């Protein structure tokens, strides 16, 4: 099993659970949902989401993802989901809170999923 991770707002995840799928804002604008590997997620979080709150980390089983996944990028191969993510591929949702300095660390709770 390969785990990929996606950072999203709690409100967006709650909507996705009701709908049965998660689209993510980039799917509409760029054609895919950005995901990260466990080794990439902290770098992404601190670059894109520094000091932001109300975030969760979706822990996704890539083998259960129904749409196509492509690993893309120049230096790092980032997983991108091309299509709406089926919520049953999400193994767990972990609270993703930055520290007082505004930087993120991999959450201690739920680390066994990643």
UniProtKB/TrEMBL annotation:
InterPro entries: DUF952 (IPR009297)
Pfam families to which the protein is assigned, alphabetical: DUF952
Protein name: DUF952 domain-containing protein
